[in-house]
Fold each of these.
Amino acid sequence: MTILCVRFQLPPTQEAALPELLGLLEEFTPVVEALPPDGALADLRGAERYFKRDAVELASVIRVRSLALHGIDCAIGAGPGPMLARMALKDARPGLTCAVPEAMVADFLADRPVAALPGVGAATARVLCEYGLDTLGRAAAAPLSTLQRLVGAKLGRELHEKANGVDRGRVVPNGVSRSLATERPFTRDELDPDRHRRALLSAAEELGSRLRALDKVCRTLTLTVRYADRTATTRSRTLGEPTAHSAALTRAAYGMYEALGLQRARVRSIALRAEGLDPAEQASHQLTFDPTDEKLRRIEEAADRARARFGPLAVVPGTLAA
């Protein structure tokens, strides 16, 4: 086991702490790949030799340092490759490392559904299940030619390799992805479009507040709507100008939602992601003489001061005018 997949238990308002936590991992290895908003991959091949400890022992040290220095716990998956480390992470819990030794890869994969394999979507999984290949063990035992006839030559070859534990992925060092995200789950599958819009308003206000707190603006907004049947629809929109203005984010979110044309859709959750973040000081803005827009910006400034003084719950998201 040489690869760790770490998920830090970061509250949504502390995503800005991820670079510091990545720095903690870089004390052990320079080969660290950020997985925003709260995770990372780390290749410990060199660290195992240098520290004379295996990956699981190093994972324990990383967890202790994260708690001691940042007060943040983490869940960790360990495996011989990035794919297996990611899959192991799904079985891990805070304070626990789920490790997949190389000798146990086949047993680890055998009973898992084919949909658990990265890169296998709902449509591909449905086709495989129709032919009785509903687990990775059965997919691994199937002839390569059979898989290629069912899902195509390239995907069939990748599926055959991954189901047999062949992990060709690499950890690619990078910076923190320039994005922020927030999600609004419903307590029950929600049919009411007004409640959908209120969730969008709340999410857009939270993103705007967090962007302004970081002195950032975003160029793209992405909407993800998840439904009761576990499917999802994702739409992205490039904004007219980079912004952290909650009203502009709300208008873009509403526009994408209306374009979906949902008819009595049973919605499980709604998520927004602000992407393409840049420093606010480098952004240019179109001058506006709209008194309503200026009023909203003054309200935002007052709300931001209240949050800075009394905490993030001083202003409840969704209570400002859209």
Note: Strands lie at 3-8, 32-35, 39-43, 74-79, 97-99, 179-190, 216-227, 232-243, 267-275, 278-279.
Amino acid sequence: MTPGRPVPPPLGKPLVVADETAEAAPSTPGAHGTPTLAAAYGATSADSGLVPLTVARRGPKEDDVEIEIDFCGLCHSDVHATRGEWGAQNYPLVPGHEIVGRVRSVGSAVDDFAPGDLVGVGCLVDSCRECDSCLEGLEQYCERGNVGTYGVKDTRNGNSITQGGYSTSVVVDRSFVLRVPEGLDPAAAAPLLCAGITTYSPLRYFDVEEGDVVGVVGLGGLGHMAVKIAKAMGAHVVVFTTSEAKFEAAIELGADDVILSKDPEAMEGANRTIDVMIDTVAAPHDLNPYFRTLRLNGALFQLGLPPTDMPPVNPGALIRRRLSYAGSLIGGIAETQEMLDFCAEHGVVSEVEVVTARQLNEAYDRMVAGDVKYRFVLDTKTLQPPSEKADV
């Protein structure tokens, strides 16, 4: 275990960014190709639920890749966004940032993708590409603000609002398109583009290897990916859960041991046994018992984002063992590609339930209730044909 492993070198070539004070030029339909209409599902308000929509996709520019979407994973953040739980949103809003499909066409300057290639798009579709973070391959930490796959202004394309992958197609700059290895099942690979990279990045940052002990708190969409990836890296994996009902499932996923975190004796027995802890729980909980399980120089990475404040952390626990308490946000484009290649090499994919467009609202309710093992994925072939006029 080596803390602070550098990320792979960035994939995208830096572009000259226009003066931020200048007004963005409006997009001109047909200037770089013919815009197309795509069928989609999205929200028209915080309480509308998901409804059929038609999205206008820009005509591909010289650096663009047009993708025919086959599958899109459902992330819990999609629920928060469409229901307005993370603040005001730009409606109509089409969510989805776990996109897998085939290249339909490419721009004149694109020479690394071709029609028919299996590709993916994750949580990002652009960044400034000039700040220190971007130049280091850390586009997710772009100092000017990255461009998310849905719900934000796309400054390079007339300040239009990005719309996500619950749709039949999307157009993305080639620098933010990922190559999905053909050996991966497309539906099961879709959640790798969020849940997979979110758990891979901190494990890779600490260069987890054979002989290391990795703890995983929670066994949901993120947790089950942390178990699979850590195991593929050669680690001894210990799952911490509040539910005895999840013991068998954890072992089936590859965990070597399972600890009931609400059992004081079991937690005491885990004292000083863990090198890296991946905390995926998105509800407020006390971290201090988990710090006691860490060895000298151990680290706890917070991936779950609770909606309210967590109980206070005792700094003494950190000081006495030189522990690190850190956060981690998805991953950059180069690291995400590395993760996809790693998963293909080791046969790692998400456990998924494929749903139709008409099942999306039910799937959202089931996600909130924790009734999914472990990720939902939308089959975009079940979307209705687009209408003759775009809704968004």
Note: The chain is about 20% helix and 25% strand.
